[in-house]
Amino acid sequence: MKVSKWFFVIMIVSFLKPQISFGVSEISQEFLKFAKKSEVFDWMVGVRRKIHENPELGYQEFETSKVIREELDKLGISYKHPIAVTGVVGFLGSGEPPFVALRADMDALSIQEMVEWKHKSKVPGKMHACGHDGHVTMLLGAAKILKSHSHLLKGTVVLVFQPAEEGGGGAKQVVDSGSLENVKAIFGLHVFPQPPLGQVFSKSGAILAGSGVFEAVITGKGGHAAIPHHSIDPILAASNVVVSLQHLVSRETDPLDSQVVTVAKFHGGGAFNVIPDSVTIGGTFRAFSKQSFMQLKQRIEEVIVGQASVHRCNASVTFGSKDKPFFPATINHEGLHKFFQEIAGDVLGVDNVKEMLPLTGAEDFSFYQEIIPGDFSCKVPWSNSGFGETSTC
């Protein structure tokens, strides 16, 4: 976390470097010196633990939002609230262009924290398993450092504390609120457990897949298991649907165009000897381009309806919802990615700036990138050898 907070800051100030008289290395050393102050580090640890102990799900981050606003008030940073129910958007600098945004997501996950330690989640069934407590703390740390060096800013930094990244599409709600008008560029990061401390991983172009969810109800005719010929078995139909959906990737997709279809929900019947009237299945699909994504969506519906019909069943298919919108692919802007590499190389050393392969996970940071040049290129290490690591994002 100590590296992450000032790395964020150096990127922002360096983004304005044509307008200031300091070199990147000079700025780096100044911010690193400030970030190493024990009072700054201890403050950040305290904030992070407070948020970690009190996790809140998407659009329910009321106490987290309160903590953020209290800290911004102490720093003398103005903000707008509420944005997208619980979100906070702060403003730091001259109030004039250029406007550059930094984003942190705030929500937790519906997961029970199993680790026994003093600062574990105090809320049963909820925890910050994806590190968003760290993201919020990093952005507050960046705000503190930037405020202390506001004389270096020749523009405005927009601090985006966003709700509901975990499937709720909070970024889209922030965009729709109009809070990011006139923003020239936006930067985001995500903690990542695997890399060694001090390394960052990134790439230009598509870095994370677009994703969507689907659900289908396959309806037949129920009956007794002893006389299946008197029924129309939706379980058999649904089973063939699951198998056929996998052919979309193995036989209809270019092997060089990564796509994923996963059926993760299969509900039907409640007795050992009764064929149900209907079965509900659901899952997710992912692709790295809008064209591939929409083609996959079309074929998923065709396969489900067609296979149901082959087995004398009917099928209705729905995609997404207000609570689970489609996420576009996260595609890093080429120019901003090059800028990131230059700054990361100066701060961490070029050997610690690594190229990464695309991941089929999804991120709603992509909604910002649809309207603003953006870079989601800083996957900062987040691990603790004392507790081990898990992958829950």
TrEMBL record:
Domain Peptidase M20 dimerisation: 210-304
The keyword Manganese is annotated on this UniProt entry: yes
Gene Ontology MF term list: IAA-Ala conjugate hydrolase activity; metal ion binding
Binding site for Mn(2+): C130, H132, E166, H190
UniProt xrefs under SUPFAM superfamilies: Bacterial exopeptidase dimerisation domain (SSF55031), Zn-dependent exopeptidases (SSF53187)
Comment on bound cofactor: The Mn(2+) ion enhances activity.
Pfam families: M20_dimer (PF07687), Peptidase_M20 (PF01546)
A cellular-component GO term for this protein: endoplasmic reticulum
Signal peptide: 1-23
Keywords: Hydrolase, Manganese, Metal-binding, Signal
Keyword field contains Metal-binding: yes
Cofactor: Mn(2+)
GO BP: auxin metabolic process
Sequence similarity: Belongs to the peptidase M20 family.
PANTHER family registered for this protein in UniProt: PEPTIDASE M20 FAMILY MEMBER (PTHR11014), PEPTIDASE M20, BACTERIAL EXOPEPTIDASE DIMERIZATION DOMAIN-CONTAINING PROTEIN (PTHR11014:SF153)
The protein, known as: Peptidase M20 dimerisation domain-containing protein
Species annotation: Lactuca saligna
